[in-house]
Amino acid sequence: MFIRTSKNLKEIIIFDDNELALFPPSAMFAKYEPGLSQLVTLECNIYAHNNLSAPITLEFLKALSTICANIRKIDLSFRSSNPSEELITFCSNIIKVQKKLKILHFSQVLGNTGKLITALEQKLFLEYLKFFKVDFSTISPSDIKVLTQCRNVNSLRFINCRGMTLEHCASLLNYPLDNLTDLKLLSGSFDLDIVNFLIDMWGPTLIILYLDRIKTNKLSNTLINRCSKLKSLNVNVRDGDEFLLPFLSQSSLIHLTMVSYYTASFSYELGQHLPTTLKHLELKKYYLASESFDKFLKNCKHLVKLEKLTIGTTSPMLDHYLSLREFIESCNSLKMITFYYRDFFINDMEEEKIKAVIKEITNLGVHCKYYGYEDRSDDY
To answer: Is the pTM of this model over 0.70?
Structure first.
């Protein structure tokens, strides 16, 4: 009764569409006002994997497409490798009828994707669009043009996707997303040519960029020539950071995150290429040899605006803290240092020495904390 007659129901989250069996028949929703008509958020994991749940799921989705037109956020996750045409049609219809949709997530769409994309036509209010494990090979280049009609999208995510081609990119080329400021291309979503093409196309408006498993001088040149407004960069540097140095030295970044997966690729030369505009630097999953880290910090003395330094490395080392103490004496802007350790194995004597140096660091006005393997933390 509550679901059918509710005056304030704004959000429905369904973790498994088998749960829909607990709902009243969908035909009843339309008999009550306001019922579901005021729904603002819809999140639904759609399995439709057996004959019992599939008809109920389809009935529910069909009802939503006729009742709800004011949803602001939709998150659809398909757990079938080949969702039925009827299922995709009802989901598409839900998207089509929304008048002020702002946030849309597609997850694990591995078949029949084209109709979901074309449902975005004239979605002028859409601001955030995320594709997770979406197969773009099921979308024709002509259909993907619809993305460019979402002119107010400012955040666009491609995570673990596949199947996009240069032909798709060419369809997008003449229709720029003028308001796009935040782009994420993660976990090898597309090959290097596709990544380079997308950044070349959308780079002039980008302020925030996330890249994963990328190493190419061509991309570095694209960043230099097309991403002059970039203020935040998050990049995986599994095979070394040299290709990024020319861009970094010319950039005006405020926030830089570099992830290296505990390789020995850390280069102290990185420091001298960091821009003077930098306020937050994160070095995650690095193996930081004491000598290289000390040289790196000596090359960072020009970072007069640096406020936060976040470091993820293998295990606590006294030499790291000694180098930081010396660096802080020449970096008056620094306010916080955070260490994240993969392994937190350290003897009591070494830990006491580290704590003593941390106390000296805090006396210099810098907040210092560290997190260990077992989520152990000490806040000094």
So the answer is: yes
